[in-house]
Amino acid sequence: MQEYSVVIPAHNASRTIAETLASVVSQSVIPTQIIVVDDGSTDDTFTIAKHFSPLVSVFQQPNKGPAAATNLGLANVRTPIIATVDADDLWHPQKMERQLAVLANDASLHVVCCYQRQFNHGKPDDGSGEVRSGLNRSGIAFRKEVYERVGDMVDQPGQRGDVVDWLARMRLAGFGFHEIAEVLSYRRIIPGSLSWRRELGKDIGYLSVAHAAMQRNRAQAKIDSTTKESL
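^ Glycosyltransferase family 2 protein, sequence as received from the core. Prediction below:
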């Protein structure tokens, strides 16, 4: 199987980063490279990540947001396959093995995600949490060429929606996508996290993403119409 890297943006994640890293290094196919980007943490996130495993490289930056932190990690990846995960989420031990197999078996696919189950912080996953699509930072694995063409993620108002925006741009660029209908990722529900609950002040980022997507689609439709007229 192809080598892969894991990028983990982290801000004040000392409560969870060790557990997240443990789920990454315990993969049945071990990553070549794990990059943690400490996004201006004021707790022990940097120290915990730095001493966790020789596989882990830690970068630091002033607090800029999850997209900026992810971008710094992506820019330092040296493998053909990349996976990302939030610093409070977990992976099934065979997540990457399953995703790598899908990518290896179909060259037309560029992004693979999986189902994701929610669990509450402080309690082990008991299989009863809500299952959702894992089309987010903790559920995707993709070829490096996708990042090279689509470009950086962009932090949105309220720091929500950056991955949604990036995936919308990925789809518009025509990259093949597949979702594995199996729970391979676990999303932690933790009070105070960026995705903790719906809040108007933070959810405005999703409105920004939707507006940008409509503008891109209109521009593409205009290009397509012009192309047809010229044929």
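The CA atoms of residues 118 and 229 lie 49 Å apart.
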